[in-house]
Amino acid sequence: MAEQLTGLAGDRALLGRTSTAERVSDILRSRIADGYFPPGTRLSEDSIGGALGVSRNTLREAFRLLTHERLLVHELNRGVFVRVLAVEDVEDIYRTRTLVECAVVRGLGEPPYALHALASAVTEGQVAAVENDWKAVGTANIHFHRELVALAGSERTDELMRSVFAELRLAFHVVDDPRRLHKPYLARNRQILQGLQAGDRGEAERLLSTYLADSLERVVEVYRRRVGENGQGLD
Fold first, then answer.
1. What's the pLDDT tens digit per position in 206-217?
2. Which of 2, 8, 202, 224 gets the highest tally of CB atoms within 10 A of its CB?
3. CA-to-CA distance for 72 and 193, rounded, in angstroms?
């Protein structure tokens, strides 16, 4: 926990002069997504509030916001913990992803599309794989899908999927073999990108739909083995 808090203290500058619960929740959301606070971690009000230099009330409001986003859970007489997802949570995340991401691709309109950020995410994943950094490959994969959603040009959709992708990372963090989980999707991200570059959004949607169905099956298989149906088996 000391290492995580040292890194968190470095985020204090992000709060500026007008520290708010929303900004604190943004910082904590990013840290949870990056794995600084893995699923099942108890979050200490005193330690985190001290690291960020914010009041207990501000931190409690940030916790409340993140609990509403299903990233944290409050356990009576025990405190606030990073949530451990159940298998049904993972399945629901993928249902949401399929509905939103496929709809974004289907509604793109006529090419050409603004794909620079999407191409950068593909390159990011390939570089991380060469460096054998499979956690970074997982991050690049999230970036790819975030940029795919951003093609819709909708702030509301971006906001919705920001929370969905943060929840997805909670599942990724308990996977014991990230290489096996993420490696197959490097090539598949590139294929989706190539379909969009060719202006064939129908083919890109077909590839994406199959991709998400296969990813759901793989993640659920691993997740069920690691934490059980109800998310109670995590050490």
1. 999 999 999 999
2. 8
3. 34
